[in-house]
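Chapter review: from sequence to fold.
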Amino acid sequence: MRGLEENLCIKYEDMAFIMDGNLPNNYKFNPVAQASVDSPGFQKQPSLKDRMHVVVFVVDGSTFEVMPEGILKKLGETRSMTIDRGIPLLVYVTKIDKICPMVDKEISDVFFSRAVEEIVNKIADVIAIPRAHVIPVKNYEKEDCLKTNINILALKALRKALSFADDFLENQFELQQETKRLNIKD
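The token string follows.
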């Protein structure tokens, strides 16, 4: 979905509908009115395949420290919603080359960069998630061809998201099995 803006954000209820799978793919959000059960394509009984399996925030590492308070509050609210639903949360930190000259010269130095480590720690603290859930990635911006080290970071981030989604699905399956066992006993 689109990024958060301080004065124009998706409504809390809309976010809940997205996570719960009530709204269809490509739903057009109205910035002045929230979605409702009367919205086109609204699913009253969404299946597991319709629900969110993982939520990923994409945060610009070069501007995080000047991010408006309203956006930080919205990120916190969204984090709380994911926790309430048992949905795993990751943060991709982009533009890491802009916060560290060493990383700008050699992207593989990301794992040795004090500046990248500091921004990862700050984001983890502000959003209140484990540091292992904050993953640095580099945007393709000035490169004229694919670079293996940039791709490795992107693939590592994607693998983590897929692993979290898989864990979520396993948990849902176990909950369904437990519910079935309890229903048979009754």
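Two observations follow directly from the output. The helical segments are 12-20, 69-85, 101-105, 114-127, 148-185. The longest strand covers residues 55-60.
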